[in-house]
Amino acid sequence: MAESRHSLFHQFTATDWDGFLKGVEKEGLRADPNGFIAQTPHPGALGSALTHPRITTDYSEALLELITPVFSSTEAMLASLRDTHRFVQQNLGDEVFWAASMPCEIDGDQSIPIANYGSSNIGQLKHVYRHGLAVRYGRIMQSIAGAHYNLSLPDSFWGKWQQVTGNQEALKDFKSDQYFWLIRNFRRRSWLLMLLFGASPALDASFVAGMKHDLRRFDDQTWFGQYATSLRMGDLGYHNNAQASLNICFNELDTYTRTLDKAIHTNWPAYERIGTCRDGEFIQINTNVLQIENEYYSAVRPKRTTGPGEKPIQALDARGVEYIEVRCLDLDPFSPVGVNRAQIDFLDLFLLDCLLTDSPRIGDEECQRLDDNYKDVVASGRWQELHLCKGGERMPVGPAARELLDHLQPLAELLDGWGQDNTYRSALAAQREKLQGNDWSVPSARVLDAMNGAGLGHRDWVLEISRQHQAALNKEALAPQVLADYQAMTERSLAEQKAQEEADTGSFGEFLEQYLRA
Fold first, then answer.
1. Continuous segment of H or E residues that includes residue 426
2. Could you tell me which residues are beta bridge partners of residue 303?
3. Alpha carbon separation from 120 to 12, 250, 496 (Å, rounded)
4. 229 and 201 in contact (C-beta within 8 Å)?
5. SS3 for 394?
6. 361 beta partners
7. Residue 242's pLDDT band (boundaries 50, 70, 90)?
8. pLDDT tens, 381-414?
9. Domain edges within the chain
10. Is pLDDT of 239 > 80?
11. What is the pLDDT at residue 243?
């Protein structure tokens, strides 16, 4: 019988283990003092959304995205994210940085301004892509915010891991194969993350105005899912109906890039009827199932840093998988920075175990079961009578979650032994505590309890907690050198955008044609 991967990992020693490399991309809306989506441009003091390394926008001009560099420690990463939040909060004037995933008050599509990146060709491409999302899916679901967690393992790990597994492939191919091994197990277990970290059980009534839904009334301005963990990841949130035709395969890099590339080059009749231009203006990049790779929404992605003008698929094919992006995390509204330490440390443990546990290829039948588990926990994860399909059997969600947490205990103990601390056992204990007794204290339950306790609906409660976070962060003055560094990043980013705009030759139409041919 082949030696288990966990046993192989035990061949490492404390001196072989250099930990994880990690970073976060944290989104959040700007809202006006009354809790309505901001109609103002991206604040000039925050620099250029096109070129700033830490502060940009996602879909909307009002949807900020804060990006950390790569760190080897959770503490350093969270400190960097907090510094960026402090700088942002100091430059919002009377606006607030919305603390929840589900948006503040909106008034239909036209109240959600599409992000503007200036007049350069690459800036226009980013804007047209977002305009394409608007004509394909509407703007409302693009006003939702989340946190993306990026994780990789250092080269020192991969060298040792390839040695103990006896693999003889080229290192880039070995790493890609192993990251997809991790992804397959992530897909088997991602429902657990929605139970432990889903924090969007309620939403403002303006989000579903005129829509059919099966939510319950909380008050005149709020709807909620009785047992929901994450409305953001459910049918009312991020879903792309046209993408139901896709069969993106997560079993290995070659099939992943091939099926994704096919979607980017397959015409979709409904989008063809829309066309690429309206009144002389580009309204989408092309009329295919996907305009670009990023349009495909999934809970996890294999990623590779791209070079200038390089597409994500090209980078993956050329140099293999560099890191994993976890995309299914709701914002933690109780944290001023949207994520918390126990959560990040748990994700490290969870993802490493996905790599170290047997991970056969996923067939169509299993794929459907995994999707059903995920959707069921998103919609009804706090219903303790909910049963999931686990190992071919039906199992109540609570025991299934606790069994998986117990499975992680030996790995937590091993890592803590190497680190001579209690990092991973503490993170694991924090998740176990959420599932104690009959009234689980998972974030989605805490949100509803807090709203009930305050006697406030979603909009007013999130506005209040957003103001509390803003006040707390504004009391923490940035160190003079840190402030100077952020101000310098602002100036550099504005200069870089201007230089790009001045350097462009040729029309955007010519640029787009060349981009699509590449």
1. helix 423-434
2. 323
3. 50, 35, 11
4. yes
5. strand
6. none
7. low
8. 999 999 999 888 999 999 999 999 999 999 999 9
9. 20-361+445-517
10. no
11. 67
- CATH for the 20-361+445-517 domain, from 3.30.70.2190, 3.30.590.20, 1.10.1740.10, 3.60.20.40: 3.30.590.20
End-to-end CA distance of the chain: 48
Amino acid 265: pLDDT = 92
- The token pair at 184 is 């397959």
Q: What is the mean pLDDT of the chain?
A: 95
Q: 281 - beta bridge partners?
A: 278
Residue 1's pLDDT is: 36
- Residues 51, 493 contacting (CB under 8 angstroms): yes
Average pLDDT over residues 303-316: 92
Backbone angles phi and psi of 290, in degrees to 5: -120, 140
Axis crossing angle, helix 423-434 with helix 397-419, rounded to the nearest 10: 160
CB-based contact 184:361 (threshold 8 Å): yes
Q: Is the pLDDT of residue 247 over 80?
A: no
Residues in the chain: 518
Q: What is the DSSP letter of 72?
A: S
How do 55-57 and 96-97 pair as beta strands?
unpaired
Answer yes or no: are the C-beta atoms of 382 and 439 closer than 8 Å. Answer: no
**Is 230 strand, coil or helix?**
strand
**Burial class of residue 12 in the structure, from the number of CB atoms within 10 Å of its CB (0-12 exposed, 13-18 middle, 19+ buried):** middle
**Residue 214 Cα distances to 145, 240, 379, 466, 478, angstroms:** 22, 19, 11, 28, 46
Q: What is the CA radius of gyration of the chain?
A: 23
Q: What is the pTM of this model?
A: 0.97
Please give the full DSSP string across 397-421, using - where no structure is assigned. HHHHHHHHHHHHHHHHHHHHHHHTS
pLDDT digits (tens, 9 = 90+) for 54-91: 999 999 999 999 999 999 999 999 999 999 999 999 99
Percent share of the chain, pLDDT over 70 = 97
Say what the alpha-carbon torsion angle 329, 251, 366, 9 is, to the nearest 10 degrees. -70
